[in-house]
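Example record

Each entry pairs one chain with its bound ligand, S-adenosylmethionine.
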Amino acid sequence: MDYWDEIYRNGNYEWGTEPTITCKILREYLRKKDRARVLDIACGYGRDCIFLAKKGFEVRGIDISGKGLSIAERWKRDEGLDIEFKCIDFLTSSFSTDSFDGILVSNLIHHLGEKELTIFINKVRRILTPGGIAVLLFLSTSDNQYGKGEETGKNTFKTKGLDVHYFTEDETLGLFSLFKVLKLEEIEIVEPHSTGETHYHKEWLLVIKNEEGNVVLSK
Ligand SMILES: C[S@@+](CC[C@H](N)C(=O)[O-])C[C@H]1O[C@@H](n2cnc3c(N)ncnc32)[C@H](O)[C@@H]1O
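Structure tokens for the complex follow.
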């Protein structure tokens, strides 16, 4: 079974039912926009989608894990909400240009390789409207798991069969240089797990804006 399907196998809310900080921040930035269209990339079991749908956003959530999405579908039904969930890989997905006013990405990009990250960034630029906002959360080199496991690349370590990359501030600013960076802050995340353990992480909270008039690559 795939790594993420295995995580969601029991149907539990693995990291609780509280939304992540990303969707609360995206909500603040898009507050003035009526029925803003939002995409949650790698939505897992949908905790951020549920929060945003309740606040009146038009929400789509995508993920590669069918098991995660079946928890999301169940939760959506129980709440009587209208959210479109789809089981697709963002890297090969085919959304139209300027499809979303807001994008959120919690805890995905530290699992992407270098080439995947380039595809990811170009795609986000293309599908976000001019002036659109994306909020991302990803691991920092200050995280307490940094250096654990087999080193497979610069600031990258393999644990439980999964590569995890830890980002520096300079690297982040370089990668997202074609966007306007509205906020880049290192924060501590307290994460209660369904096992009863609590994990603490140091992550980057990044808020970027798609500048108007950008030249956008077609792929
Ligand atoms: C750590 S979980 C985060 C889930 C959710 N954002 C949250 O914070 O609750 C990472 C998620 O990324 C998804 N994922 C990994 N690669 C993906 C890809 N290429 N496209 C879409 N989803 C992906 C996994 O299935 C998993 O649900």
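The mean pLDDT is 94.
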